[in-house]
Design brief:
Length: 180
Amino acid sequence: MTKIDLAIVLISMFIILSLHSIVGNAAEAAKSGEEPKSKHPKEETPEDILKAHNEFRAQVGVPPLVWNETLAKYAQVYAKKRVNDCKMEHSMGPYGENLAGGYEDSTIADSVRFWATEKPDYDPASGKCKSGGFDCGHYTQIVARKTTNVGCAREKCTNGWYYVICSYYPAGNIEGEKAY
Ligand SMILES: *[C@@H]1O[C@H](CO)[C@@H](O)[C@H](O)[C@H]1NC(C)=O
């Protein structure tokens, strides 16, 4: 065996061992029920977005949402309309609506989990936000019992941020109304 042959064998072994450890880590993550962190926003599916919503709904005993292409299309059209200013301004359409500014590698599901950080602020007994005002309104839209359908979109703005919008039907984030 020449020195070059030996080097090739060693490099091949290194690659095989590395692959083994990557596959092993993915299997480990699957076993513990953790989301693999490597999912690229471009690979995100409606199922991923539904799952993010439905986990928070299940926590409070509310039935899961289903994906609706009409809503996804509506969200897409509005997101495209905002790419030049990326403004967190509501579309004033007929649907419930959550907006967020996202990073290049953050998914829509990440935005859903971000909205849901308002959960501790919601008081289910009164149906109000503990902080007063409507600061838990993103969370209440996620878990609203009367909402059954969702569709979301994500578009890159000219300033480099990502515009994230989810549209909900029937609208559930109505101030003064209990979410569930
Ligand atoms: C999807 O959403 C649209 C718009 O709100 C609604 O009219 C339609 O019934 C929904 N589709 C389904 C299958 O629920």
